[in-house]
Amino acid sequence: MTQTMRLGGGMIDRSKPLNFRFDGKSYQGFDGDTLASALMANDVRLIGRSFKYHRPRGVLTAGSDEPNALVELREGARREPNSRATVAELFDGLVAQSQNRWPSLSFDALAINDRFSNFLTAGFYYKTFMWPAAFWEKLYEPIIRRAAGLGSLSLAEDPDSYDKGFLHCDLLIIGAGPAGLSAALTAARAGAEIILADEDFRLGGRLNSETHPLDDAPASDWINASIAELESLPNVRLMPRTTVIGAFDHGIFGAVERVSDHLLTPPEGKPRQTLWRIYTKRSLLAAGAAERPIAFPNNDRPGILLAGALQSYVNRWAATPARRIAVFTNNDTGHRTALDLIAKGIEIAAVIDPRPDVTRTGDYPLLAGAVVSNTAGRLGLKSIEVRLASGEMRRLECQALAVSGGWNPNVHMTCHKRGLPVWDEGIAAFVPGETGAQGMFVAGAAEGRFSTADALTRGMEQAIVALGELDRKAHTIALPKAENDTGSITPCWQVKGGKGRAWLDFQNDVTTKDVKLAHQEGFRSVEHLKRYTTLGMATDQGKTANMGALAIMAELAGKSIPETGTTIYRPPYTPVAIAAFAGRSRGTDFRPTRLTPSHQWAVEQGAVFVETGNWLRAQWFPRPGETDWRQSVDREVLATRRSVGICDVTTLGKIDIQGSDAATFINKVYANGFAKLPVGKTRYGLMLREDGIVMDDGTTARLAEDHFVMTTTTANAVSVYRHLEFARQCLWPGLDVQLISTTEAWAQFAVAGPNSRKLLEKIVDKNFDISNEAFPFMACGEITVCGGLRARLFRISFSGELAFEIAVPSRYGDALIRQLMQAGEEFEATPYGTEALGVMRIEKGHAAGNELNGTTTALNLGMARMVSKTKDSIGSTLSEREGLNQPDALMQVGLRPLDKSRKVTAGAHLMVRTAAANAKNDQGYITSACYSPNLGHSIGIGFLKNGAERKGEILRAVSPLTNLEIEVEVVSAHFIDPEGKRLHA
Amino acid sequence: MHSLKPLTPLGGTTPRRDEYPGLILMENPDWAMASVAARAGSVKKLASAFTTFAQGKLAAVESIDNSGKITNFWTAPDQWMVMAPFASHESLAADLKAALGNTASVVEQTDGWCRFDLSGAHAVNTLERLSAANSRRMQANRVCRTQIDHLGCFMLCHKAGQDFSILGPRSAAASLHHALTTAAISIA
Amino acid sequence: MSYSGWRVIKEALSGHKGWKPAWRDPVPASDYDFVIIGGGGHGLATAYYLAREYRAKRIAVIEKGWIGGGNVGRNTTIIRSNYLLDGNEPFYEFSLKLWEGLEQDFNYNAMVSQRGILNLIHSDAQRDAFTRRGNAMILNGADAEMLSVEQIRQRYPFLNFNNARFPIKGGLAQHRGGTVRHDAVAWGYARGADRLGVDIIQNCEVTGFRIKGGICSGVETTRGFIGAKKVGCAVAGSSGRLMAQAGMRLPIESHVLQAFVTEGLKPVLPGVVTFGAGHFYVSQSDKGGLVFGGDLDGYNSYAQRGNLPTVEDVCEGGMALMPAIGRARLLRMWGGIMDMSMDGSPIIDKTHIDGLYFNGGWCYGGFKATPASGWCFAHLLATDKPHEVATAYRFDRFKRGYMIDEKGQGAQPNLH
Amino acid sequence: MIINHPLLGPRDAQEFTYLGDANLINRPDWQAEDAVDQFHEYLYQRDNPAGKHRELWYHEAGDRSWLVVTRDTLTHEITGVELARDVALKSGRGK
Predict the structure, then answer these.
(1) Staple A911 to which of A17, A771, A956, B176, CB 3.0 to 4.6 Å?
(2) Quick check: D15 and B75 CB within 8 A?
(3) pLDDT tens readout for residues A915-944
(4) Contacts of C350 (CB under 8 A, 6+ apart)
(5) Contacting residues of B for A789, CB less than 8 Å apart
(6) Among residues 630-659 of chain A, which lie with CB inside 8 Å of chain B?
(7) What CA–CA distance (Å, rounded) separates C109 from C116?
(8) End-to-end CA distance of chain D
(9) What is the dihedral of CA A215, A216, A219, A224, to 10 degrees?
């Protein structure tokens, strides 16, 4: 027998039955159900367990503020822990498990905690588990951690994809209830660009849960007509299933659209969810209000739910938790609920209302001036105990209890920019404070105007004002006739004098006793209360808990509620899947990948690639038979030094600098002189930060009087360009200089080795003489290659060999490397990767990223003399500071192992031979190390105190981290060709 | 003529073409480009020199000028990108420099960029998933530089709501293409 | 009253009537020997150690709001001493040692949990740098271990080892690092200090310093003038605002750092993991929430809230590293004000005004430093000499060129 | 955040890179007697106000203009945006 608790009517499609499973048992619901309503229709009341005491729990609400009915939704890699059954749209094949229970939901071993609750009061753990000290990590904490958490992750990679997007509009309307819809119609008819977003899959808001007619017809008629009109307008974007999660600066909102969460799996290629960044000129918050419970003893049993939620279940979903229901209310909601229940043929055990003078609005037993003082039923409500006005106690049989403690306007979004809500005595709730500065308007229940008529009117009025601020005239629209009962309320936060605990935060098991204890121990600010008791820290973010706790705090402190504090909210409005924030940036698409012009060719050569920044570069090119990367790298190095090697160096930053003041400009951004660099020549440049530390280095070529090309390191290409623009626009705006990056435009290859000239002569067109005389070391020029292709040639060398760098437009890069390799066959031209590049520069003692680590000065690099004192350049002044010029300053040196078979380790620290290895004796450290195939042993370069004076000294290189310690000799960092003969060959 | 065979930014010998419902995505390597930046104090001289060369005029802020035989669009204060068919204008930068002399700094940009042309009803639905620029309201002959999945790109609008071009860093062409296709497919 | 398991049981059986306020709520006296401005972790620890280690009397901590409401109450609770430079490592190692005995010391369970911290390596250059760092840690008496990919895979099998944009190539681990229940640190120090006679005065805002002839004799507050022989400022996030009242400009910018926590989940993360190629680090709290964060938003701010791009950037890093957390839901985000110094390292020093002392510029290293910061500031206040592990934290280091720049970013606070 | 670029109109701050206090435009004279002190003040010392702050932003993913933005560090409200180049020229910077 299924759906025994299904009633007549409702907004479900009985022609579309949907099968689903909960805790392994099969059930059936209908299209339009949520998991919660479908379970209720199937008479399932027990859905979850609380966090601390593992109390049995059922649904409390009908929305995203649900603290109790949390499940693990879906299976396998798609499992979603802590999913609210109350907003999980039902689909065929849905599978859900209860969580935080063992072995089963109805019998949970850890429910034992409930028995010991007296020992587990707020903050008890701060006062114990301290002795013996070692026991915390070994014993106590593991036990606590095992009990921690609610649902569990699958730990498999999320198989779904997520997307992002950006939307622009004049008015963003948050919430599609009566206020939101009337605002949307008003603004849309005025031609404004609007977005209407609602977290629900059915627009209409509270209207879907209540029975009030609009223009004497069912509210759904007006809703459907309104939606139809809005859908027909090009300037309107309707976004159901979309939660606006946060208000950020300057009219930017985040919103999550659940594109496929109502399906078993997303369609091929479609996202599960999309994160929209919405840019809006004005916003209207019409997010309604959330009902709040009353704290009375054992107010947390399955079957006890909020009255407004119960209205939703019976009216919208035609489901009821019981056939005989009692109502406990301090405002009119409970009475309206009773009428709705009666209309559905449900028996009312009684309406209990603490207000002595309240009158009946229908045919139900009313207990005025009475309160619920206790409840019974372990896994589901069986009966309640009522204390009558007379003080007499009465027991009432009922399987459900609808509770209404009044309504809290959903002011969250008005607080996201630290706006403070203000207290409204009339409705005993906080309403939005100053929001104007944010361009945000509020309408309807969200501003504390609870009647349908008010909501409709305010939505229209606020839309008109908002558009008015944008100089857009909107006109009043015809609104349907609606109920205008503003309601009345007498605050009732807790029922005193009863036995047993009264829950405030249902999920985290924070009771009125905990609040009292916190106050007693001096935790008297709202912040202290939350942190000490964990109140409001649960997945419902305290939506149902904070207000009641604040009221009780106020009472304890003998202050008014506003004096005591307020409850402010931070984003997100409801919890959001982390993957939704990441969007498409996943796996290998986490960041863009930049490929060099020779990438395809390198792939064909079987190159091994390495990430350098966003670039992928060939690290080495294994040859058949090579089993270890070292074999490949050694071969590449030896071949280059013996004959000729080729390496793609396109990744180096290239900045084109032109203008009549270009030379002056470059002279200011480099520490060394450039003013006198002749046309057709290249020079090494050392760039300092203003604090005198080396920022970058590279070569800059002068192609014409007013035209330079600067190269930067691969890593700093972007930051150097930014730095140059700063110098150009902010420091020396009077200079005639223009900058543009050409890193991408040119494919550039290093051709290095004794035969590099011979090879290039076969490529470079004959009318260009690149002989040593015509094109000496550090020459540069614009040439043509391969029969007329424009190219640039630089005679510069990172390897220390006779070497050139040749550049052609990127689209020809692939063809050029193939040409070079072909032309190089007779010289056994060898492609080399970044490893060989690294080895050769270490053999030459050239500083690179490992040396230029952001703390290195020109002095450290042995280039102090390069910093010109005869001109103004960035960094020169502060480079003179005492601390950067100590007599024992670190100096770059070469390091050679005494025992040639031992390995020099980058990152090892240097100690005097006889001194103990500790920080006090630290003499410096090794920055880079490699095996030098030319020298036949390992070498390193590093920084050593007063290193320039210590050539020949024997030191210990210690690396306790890797259990290495060797003796090294301090030598010149120029391991190969110290005189630089090869460069000039 | 030289012997070197060009590759498109995506590494093909012919441009890549993708078709989706409501969207055609084309890799387009057929444009020569050069940046033109005015020398200090010579914007006016440059403008007239350019007009003599290209007939059209230097584009206003965030616009494209198609009025002449050679197109250009605004890229930064006193800086423009000039575009002409590659087949006929591979030497665009040199030609411009010859024509503009010392009124401007000219830099070849042809291979600094990859270009993807989007056309169809879904063009803006695709672009609004990629960039904060308001492509839905973008008028014809407008351009802006914006961010697409961490890449600085130019977005050119040729026909409002219909025809766009995205210019991105050439080395990241594959990543940019991946972003464009993923967005195109994910349109619900 | 001393806290213990027995006490908890006794109180439970007698209706918890015996619990007293964790600290008194005294009226400020007219003057003290020491006035500490700032009832956060550092200020309270300073008062605690002044009283306990330096036997000082007549101490007050004055706090404009509620104690522990600043960064000690809004951080990601990580403790570690994996620093590189001589100026820093001994200090942070001293701090870590203090954490190790803290709870027994101040009789409060702050849940110091040394579950280990792991910094992932994604390139050879990073490996070289981390090797140097790990060695520096060991040479300073701290612990460090270089882990292989296999070792990491065993401990964190769900990291992205297969299709990562920046593959994991190893990691530098400090097993003694971990997490602490952050609020409890403030409360523990407050209660400890209170028991030693320190007056903790909440809701008392400093409105000015009384300075004559270059000597500070006390502070003007919303509760009247409070005289003091020595005034110590420890007001992370408000350093600029406070010291401006003494006419001082600081080598500090205040920036917003966002932090995030997910819904409670059954335990998945044994320790703290830091992604070396994206802006993301994460741990799991004893309540089950994944606590994570990333980079600063990057602009000066006192707003204690951030913006969406940073949230997305951090979560992108999270998904790149741990694709298995995709369906975990982000529950809360918040922002703290970081007093970012010009070299990323703090200042514990006398000011040029006699009797006025400063402790600040902690960037986002403040929480882990709490015990040592308090101890060293107390030492400076009591003896007028810097503590041996804090000698480098001077105001004049920038003018003299002795920066302590762990990240090598230079004078750009938002990059440290 | 949104920065209202003087030439381009409102643009998402995500397209920009932040540097800091706009005073970094006023680079001291390298030949001054107390040049080191002046550069120290210039590079390291900050007003760091809680309120209106003039600061440098670089439109890195846009037109590469450096901007001087006047922004309230308490509310993030932006009340002024200028091209840094204009500001520098006005304050007498040239060659």
Answers:
(1) A956
(2) no
(3) 999 999 999 999 999 999 999 999 999 999
(4) C356, C357, C358, C380, C384
(5) 2, 4
(6) 650, 656, 658-659
(7) 19
(8) 34
(9) -60
Cis, peptide link before residue A56, omega less than 30° from 0: no
Beta bridge partners of A897: A968
Within 8 A of D35 by CB-CB distance, chain C residues are: none
Q: Which helix (H) or strand (E) holds C231?
A: strand C224-233
Average pLDDT for A978-985: 93
Strand partners, B33: B83
Chain C contact present for D80, CB below 8 A: no
CATH of C117-178+254-341 given 3.40.830.10, 3.30.9.10, 3.40.1190.20, 3.10.105.10? 3.30.9.10
Contact A961 C324 (CB under 8 A): no
Interface of C with A in 64-103 (CB under 8 A): 65-66, 68-69, 73, 86, 89-90, 101, 103
Q: What is the CATH number of the domain that holds A530?
A: 1.10.10.1100
- Residue to test with chain B: of D63, D82, D87, most B Cβ within 10 A: D63
**How far does the CA of residue A440 sit from the closest CA of chain D (Å)?**
15
User: Which pLDDT value is given to residue A96?
Assistant: 98
Domains of chain B, each with CATH number or no CATH: 17-29+112-186 (3.30.1360.120), 31-111 (3.30.70.1520)
The yes or no reply on domain C29-108+182-251+343-415 and CATH 3.30.160.250 is: no
Q: C307 CB near a chain D CB, below 8 Å? A: yes
- Given a cut of 80, is residue A438 above it in pLDDT? no
Contact B49, B39 (CB under 8 A): no
CB-based contact D26:D89 (threshold 8 Å)? no
* Residue ranges of domains in chain C: 29-108+182-251+343-415, 117-178+254-341
Question: What end-to-end distance do the CA atoms of chain B give, in Å?
Answer: 49
Residue matched to tokens 């054992």: A298
Query: Most C CBs within 10 Å: which of A138, A855, A885, as the mutation test of the C interface?
Result: A855
Kindly state whether residues A223 and A202 are assigned to the same domain.
Answer: yes
pLDDT tens series, chain C, 416 aa: 899 999 999 999 999 999 999 999 999 999 999 999 999 999 999 999 999 999 999 999 999 999 999 999 999 999 999 999 999 999 999 999 999 999 999 999 999 999 999 999 999 999 999 999 999 999 999 999 999 999 999 999 999 999 999 999 999 999 999 999 999 999 999 999 999 999 999 999 999 999 999 999 999 999 999 999 999 999 999 999 999 999 999 999 999 999 999 999 999 999 999 998 999 999 999 999 999 999 999 999 999 999 999 999 999 999 999 999 999 999 999 999 999 999 999 999 999 999 999 999 999 989 999 999 999 999 999 999 999 999 999 999 999 999 999 999 999 999 99
Q: What is the DSSP letter of A36?
A: H
Q: Do D13 and C307 touch (CB under 8 A)?
A: yes
Q: Tell whether D95 is covered by a domain.
A: no
3-class secondary-structure state, position A40: helix
ipTM greater than 0.90, yes or no?
Answer: yes
Contact A738 B11 (CB under 8 A): no
Angle between helices A546-557 and A526-533 (to 10 degrees): 120
Same domain, A665 and A623: no
Which of chain C's residues have a Cβ under 8 Å away from the Cβ of A585? Answer: 316, 319-320
Domain CATH number, residue A975: 2.40.30.110
Size of interface C-D (CB pairs under 8 A): 66
pLDDT score of D9: 97
- Interface partners of chain A (CB pairs < 8 Å, 3 or more) are B, C, D
Contacts of D among chains (3+ CB pairs under 8 A)? A, B, C
Which chains have at least 3 CB atom pairs separated by less than 8 Å from chain C?
A, D
* Structure confidence at residue C205 (pLDDT): 98
Q: Are residues A644 and A769 in the same domain?
A: yes
Domain containing A927 equals: 886-984
Q: Indicate which of B75, B144, B167 best probes the interface with D, i.e. most D CBs within 10 Å of its own CB.
A: B144
Q: Which residues of C touch D1 (CB under 8 A)?
A: 299, 307
Cα–Cα dist C145/C133, whole Å: 11
Q: What is the pLDDT of residue A463?
A: 98
